């Protein structure tokens, strides 16, 4: 077990750091986001598929398994998933309404034209409020123009909370390394945690990189999340205790609902205005989900309480 104690935090830190900095290095060296917006959008769609796979194949099944020990004849995990979805929806729309209300104070126009929820009583061209800008023609009519140049995925406060929740899930899994009985079980458990952690940090880094955040800010957030996961593994291995199963399951269920909101109302909706065929978007999203399935099949399973 001594090898696990020493190497697992180091490997988690190095692996998360590597997968978390790849998108930013592509930007620094090649300027991918500005030069190849379709590639950037495809990377975000792939990340959305990975999030779907993490929810359906990792988070929700683990939460249901842990909550089944309560012997309650009610789908608690699924109910908490719906609650997490609705809660993040409420946070996002409340913040959006607040921002639009504050913007109204600095916008010329009648209250009928500018509301707390939309401009002109509708969305900005693509149904999501992003990716298009208004312009006036010489005749006085207004029209919407597609956003040029780069693709930017807007990361909001609520979505950052969900990504932090996913990080906390990985932290709890890292702490559970300490409760394995043999070195073999510990290494197998570590391989499970590491693969999911690496995929998750690639997704988190991609969403931060393709957002409007500065590269330094995105790298800082990624480094902090990576350090938290490594420290959780150190704490778990040092204390030889893991987080309670019920609290872990509740967190997983809530994070699952939030991630589904991020995928459907964030990644998919905000990517549809780009000139990428629908079948290509479906293929990229499916490839992300299939990647998680392959990882789950390739890595041996040791149940983590």
From TrEMBL:
Keyword presence, Acetylation: no
Transmembrane segments: 6-27, 39-60, 72-91, 151-172, 192-211, 218-239, 245-267, 279-302
A single Gene Ontology CC term: plasma membrane
Keywords (A to Z) from UniProt: Kinase, Membrane, Transferase, Transmembrane, Transmembrane helix
Compartment(s) where it occurs, according to its Swiss-Prot or TrEMBL record: Membrane
GO MF entry, a single one: kinase activity
Top-rank taxon, per record: Eukaryota
Membrane topology label: Multi-pass membrane protein
Alphabetized Pfam families for the sequence: Zip (PF02535)
Protein name per Swiss-Prot or TrEMBL: Citron Rho-interacting kinase
Organism: Ornithodoros moubata (Soft tick)
């Amino acid at each position: 077990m001594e090898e696990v104690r020493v190497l697992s935090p180091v490997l988690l830190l190095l692996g998360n750091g590597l997968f978390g900095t790849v998108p930013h290095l592509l930007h620094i060296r090649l300027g991918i986001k500005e030069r190849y917006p379709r590639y950037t959008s495809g990377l975000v769609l792939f990340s959305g598929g990975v999030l779907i796979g993490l929810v359906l194949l990792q988070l929700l099944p683990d939460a249901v398994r842990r909550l089944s020990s309560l012997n309650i004849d009610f789908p608690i995990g699924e109910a908490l998933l719906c609650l997490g979805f609705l809660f993040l929806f409420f946070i996002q729309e409340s913040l959006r309404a607040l921002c639009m209300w504050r913007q109204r104070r600095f916008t010329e126009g009648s209250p009928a034209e500018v509301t707390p929820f939309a401009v002109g009583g509708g969305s900005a061209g693509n149904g999501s409020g992003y990716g298009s800008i208004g312009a006036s023609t010489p005749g006085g009519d207004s029209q919407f123009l597609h956003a040029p140049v780069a693709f930017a995925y807007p990361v909001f406060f609520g979505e950052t909370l969900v990504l932090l929740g996913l990080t906390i899930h990985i932290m709890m899994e890292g702490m559970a390394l300490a409760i394995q009985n043999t070195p073999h079980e510990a290494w197998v458990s570590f391989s499970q945690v590491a693969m999911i952690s690496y995929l998750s940090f690639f997704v988190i880094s991609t969403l931060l990189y393709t957002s409007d955040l500065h590269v330094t800010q995105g790298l800082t957030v990624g480094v902090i999340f990576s350090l938290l996961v490594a420290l959780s593994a150190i704490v778990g291995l040092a204390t030889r205790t893991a987080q309670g199963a019920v609290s872990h399951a509740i967190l997983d269920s809530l994070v699952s609902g939030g991630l589904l909101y991020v995928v459907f109302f964030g990644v998919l909706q905000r990517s549809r205005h780009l000139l990428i065929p629908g079948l290509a978007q479906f293929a990229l999203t499916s490839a992300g989900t299939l990647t998680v399935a392959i990882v789950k099949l390739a890595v041996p399973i040791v149940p983590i309480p």
